[in-house]
Design a protein that fits this description.
It is a single chain. This protein has 234 residues and is α/β, with parallel strands linked by helices. It has a single domain, classed as Rossmann fold, CATH 3.40.50.880. Helix content is 34%, strand content 27%. The protein is built from 8 helices and 9 strands. The chain has a 9-stranded mixed β-sheet, sandwiched between helices. Helix 2 links the parallel strand 3 and strand 4. Helix 2 crosses helix 3.
């Protein structure tokens, strides 16, 4: 099978648990480090699937790689090659499919309960699960593109995930590991301190719940990733 392409937009926002998941199942992966200047491919044909990770930039920023990424996503969807996005990656998918990216009413940082929307599409990805602790770090949100279905929500951000067939766009970060969370808390200390939002937790609160929250979220991540890889292009 062809490899899964993973697009990284900043050094500390790598594939995390997704990388471990793919490795454990013998699924080859290729890192495309946009943060180091790696080029965005013109075609998705060399890959079984495309994964877009997070980043501190906005999809609305004037960055040369963003239009190329949007076009690549559109070509992958047209070719029935599965696409998966985390946070910024989810926003890239939304914009590529005609959605809009705008500021969320409040910034979300830290742990927050994500609720599964009651619909058949959500059940296909989450099974009987109704809610789980998700990790958040974002100030923007996406609208739901035409034809896609919203499957996840939080009190502070109603559009936490949508699906369109094989394609999954997440606003939250289910890929997190303990090491990533600690690194993000260090790198984003000033952002946390400057935030005035009821949905922003401090470093101590984030780390206090890390063991139990990570275990619960990891089980959800594995379920989502398992459903996604079942659709990979062979």
């Amino acid at each position: 099978m062809r490899p899964v392409a993973i697009f990284r937009h900043v050094g500390h926002e790598g594939p995390g648990r997704l990388g471990d998941f793919l490795d454990s199942r013998g699924i080859a992966r290729e890192l495309i480090a946009v943060d180091r200047g790696d080029a965005i491919p013109d075609s998705p044909a060399a890959y079984a699937g495309l994964v877009f990770m997070g980043g501190p930039m906005s999809v609305n920023d004037d960055l040369a790689w963003i239009p190329r990424s949007l076009e690549l996503i559109r070509r992958a969807v047209a070719a029935d090659i599965p696409v998966l996005g985390h946070c910024l990656g989810g926003q890239l998918i939304a914009k590529a499919l005609g959605g809009a990216i705008s500021g969320n009413p409040v910034k979300e940082i830290g742990w927050g309960e994500a609720r599964v929307v009651a619909c058949p599409e959500a059940a296909a990805w989450f099974g009987d699960l109704r809610a789980f602790p998700a990790f958040h770090w974002h100030g923007e949100t996406f609208s739901i593109p035409e034809g896609a279905v919203r499957i996840l929500e939080t009190p502070y951000c109603p559009n936490q995930a949508f699906v369109l067939g094989k394609h999954l766009a997440l606003q939250c970060h289910v890929e997190m590991t303990a090491e990533m969370i600690e690194e993000w808390c260090q790198a984003g200390a000033d952002e946390i301190a400057a935030a005035s939002s009821p949905a922003v937790q401090g470093r101590e609160a984030i780390l206090a719940g890390i063991a139990s929250h990570l275990a619960a979220m990891a089980a959800v991540a594995d379920r989502l990733y398992g459903h996604w890889v079942a659709g990979l292009s062979r």
